[in-house]
Specification:
0% helix, four-stranded antiparallel beta sheet, Jelly Rolls
Amino acid sequence: MSQFIPERLDARGISLASRIPVSNTVAASPALAAETTICTITVPSNLQVFQSVIIEGQAAWTQGTSATAYTLKIRQTDTSGTTIYSSGLIAAAAGVLVNAGVMGIDASPAAGQVYVLTLTVAAGAATSTVSAATLAATVV
């Protein structure tokens, strides 16, 4: 192996796959006005966190019957876990296709932390249909 240290370093030969877990699996669609986990990821427990974990979520869904608004959240663990980010209540009529995203930062994550993307549809009288969901975490 060469003792030479190149003058220019870049990331072409570095795989960041383990530091950026991603899921595109739709876990469920919210029935009525219940907060529902629509996507989940787990950060590998053997990674050292130097600063924080940046979590990004994106979802597309059709608002259910009578729906008036929605809230998209990133939480730790499950629907009762610590909220990392909440969109707040955003108006959207029933039957409308919504495409929204959220991003949050967890400054003190646990090893093997689980993150969930949740959706609550306000005043929904029927199931809202989630057609796509993505959740990604970048361990920094």
